[in-house]
Amino acid sequence: MRRTAIPLGKFRRADIRFDAGRHTRAKLGFVLLAMEQTVEGDMGRMAPEGVGVHFQRAPMANRVDVSTLAAMAVDIGDAAALIVPEENLDVVCYACTSGSVVIGEDKVFSELVRGARGAKPTSIISAVIRALKAVDARKIAVATPYVDDINEIERTYMQQRGFEVVNIEGLGIENDADMVRVTPDYLFDFARSVDRPGTDAIFISCGALRSVDIIPALEAEVGKPVIVSNQAMMWDCLRLAGVCDKNDKYGRLFRDH
Question: Quick one: which of 146, 150, 154, 158 has its CA closest to 67?
């Protein structure tokens, strides 16, 4: 469209041209662990055009255990309040799977609402539960990077929500900085080894793992849905925001639901 040139020296605030910005479809906010290195990249690559992804970090030690995860609870709301302050988010999510099960969804949600009023609250474990239900999975195999204490809490959490955890195995990694370095090809082999006959789906737990990279190949190998933390989180946040785009890059969940 042809525009009339503005003479030099005649630019005035009253004449500035504004539009709705880049994020016209939805604004999603994520509270991360202080040392997180994977979630931001995964959310950026999975976000459809017109969807903004915004982040803030909450304090936490690099060591991932029950005590350090539980201690995060009091900082979730404060972190949520710093995600694009004074702008309205559509959805706000606590982006830690193990933290979600240790702290509990009710406490996580109350903190998120305290910090980001008006946004729909969710968490990775909430997203995973909805994703597993979407693909009609009841019997699941779970692969994690965690130590045994966290695995047992996660097993109980999932069983209390109606899933049969046929098998859960962890890598015994305590430092988040090591979790981000586990290679995707190793995750592929590990998740395949954790699966059992008769399961409806494999769940790879933890936002720090690069498991988004292996979803289509692993689904083709095992012949069943594969749900991973970051894939489920983005899918859930998009659907809560009313964005229903589908694609075949991130497994059956995004392709069919």
Answer: 150
Beta bridge partners of 144: 170
pTM, full prediction: 0.93
Dihedrals phi, psi of 31, to nearest 5 degrees: -95, 120
127-229 CATH choice from 3.40.50.300, 3.40.30.10, 3.40.50.12500, 3.40.50.150: 3.40.50.12500
User: Tell me: the pLDDT tens digits for 224-249?
Assistant: 999 999 999 999 999 999 999 999 99
Distances (CA, A) of 212 to 126, 146, 207: 18, 18, 9
Q: Kindly report each contact of residues 53-57 with a partner whose C-beta sits within 8 Å and lies 24 or more positions away, as own/partner.
A: 53/28, 54/27, 54/28, 54/29, 54/30, 54/83, 54/84, 54/89, 55/29, 55/30, 55/31, 55/83, 56/29, 56/30, 56/31, 56/32, 56/80, 56/82, 56/83, 57/31, 57/32, 57/33
Number of separate helices (H) and strands (E) present in the chain: 12, 8
Tell me the CATH architecture of domain 26-123+232-246: 3-Layer(aba) Sandwich (3.40)
Residue 64 — pLDDT band, cuts 50, 70, 90?
confident
